[in-house]
Structures are given as structure tokens and as C-alpha cells.
Amino acid sequence: MKKRLEMTTNIRVMRLCTIVIALTATVWVHPLYAQEEEEEEGIIWGEEEEGFDEDFFGEDDEFFDEGEESFDDEFGLEDEFGDEMDEFLEEDELLEEEFEEEEFDEEPVDFGYNVRLSAASPSFVNNTLMTWNSFLDVRLGADLPFTFSLGPIRMRLGAEVVTYKFENYLPEGGTFNGVGIYGMVTFPAGPSDMHVGVGVLGSSPAVVLGQSFGIPYTDNIILKLGTRVTMAANPPEQIKEIGPAAAWLEGFFTVVYSLE
Known about the structure:
Elements: H1 2-45, H2 47-75, H3 77-103, E1 113-125, E2 132-134, E3 137-150, E4 153-168, E5 175-189, E6 192-201, E7 204-216, E8 221-232, H4 237-240, E9 246-259
Antiparallel strand pairs: 1-3, 1-9, 2-4, 3-4, 4-5, 5-6, 6-7, 7-8, 8-9
Helix pairs in contact: 1-2
């Protein structure tokens, strides 16, 4: 029993000594490590930095300056490329001025007189003309040579004479035909265009809206294919029994001849 107590006591004493030694080492080692780290930081950011900057970069500034001067003297960049660069900049400014003048030129352009001959045939009709057969119509028009600008949009004025013909087959016969005339406003886009017209078909006020796609054939001739909507506000009484207005969509082929 005594031996066991002695052994237990010795073990406890040894453990206590080990803990005391470990704590003592920890307390003394940590401040020493921190002091060394501070000294190293003071060395890095202190005197060595100033000496490094003064000794190294002070001489290199003169070296780079001398190198640039010797490079310019040897190759003569200013003498060879100075005049060419000035000429290039002057040409660039001239091109910009010409481009701005062309882009913002809003003066009217003289296109010459245009004479149009068209053949058209209604393809779709509204309910009031469902029982009416359509035929081939002819149009003859002309555009004035002058253009008018509304911002970036150019317009031409003209006039057009048209024929139209519809025949009723149910429940009884009848015709809706005659000659009409329109005042036209055309919005040209190269050989193509959009157009709007207001006029009369017989005794009925009418409005037209269309567009065409042109293909130049010769210098003075353009071939066009397009579509147009026509609405007559006061058709004959026989048509009014079904609806208040007559309207139809037609496809057309046009030959345009320019008188320059």
C-alpha cells in the first residue's frame, strides 16, 4: 500500500512539474518571438527602404532620360513623321467636314418629273363588297420634281387618275365603276416608296395608302411591285345596304419613267 501511495504521489508530482515547465516556456518564448518580429519589420520598412530608393532609382532616372534622347536622335522620329502626321490630321478634318455637310444638307433635291403607269387588281374586299366581282384597273400618275423635308423625311407631291369597276352578282345585278382622281404624297426611299392619297371615286370621297418596291431597269425606267388599300366613304346605295363604306386591297405593277 505504501509503495502504491508513493508511486501515485511521484506521478502527480511529475505531472505538476511538467505543467509548470510548459507554462514557463510559453510565457518566456512568446515575448521573445514578438520582439524579433518587430525588429524585422523595422528593418524592412526603415532605413533599408530609403537606401534602396536613393541608390537604385536616383541613377536610373538619368539613364532613362539619356536613353530617350539618344533614341530620338538616332532615328529622327520627329523629323520623319512630324510632317506626315500633320498632313494626315488635316485630311481627316476635311473628310469630317464633308461628311457633316452631306449628312445635314436639308436643301430640296430635284429628282425630275416622274410619270407612272400602273395595272392593278383587287384581291381582298370588305364585307360590303363580298358579292361584287372585281376587274383589272388602270392608273396614270405623275410626281413633281421637287421634294419637301419634314426632319429626316422627304416628300414629293403628285396626282393620279384611276379607273375602278365592281359588278354585283347576288342577289341582283348592279355596278360600282367609274373614274377617280387623287392628290398624292410620296415618300421616296431609293427606287422604292410609300404613298398616301386623298381624292374622289366618282362622287365618293376616298383615301388610299400603299407601298412599292422598285427595281431599276435603265437610268430612266424603274419597275415596281406593290400593294395598296383603298376606302370609299360614300359608295352607291346598293352597297350601303350591306355596309357604310367600301374598301379593298389590291396588288399592282407599275412602270415609272423619269423625265430629267
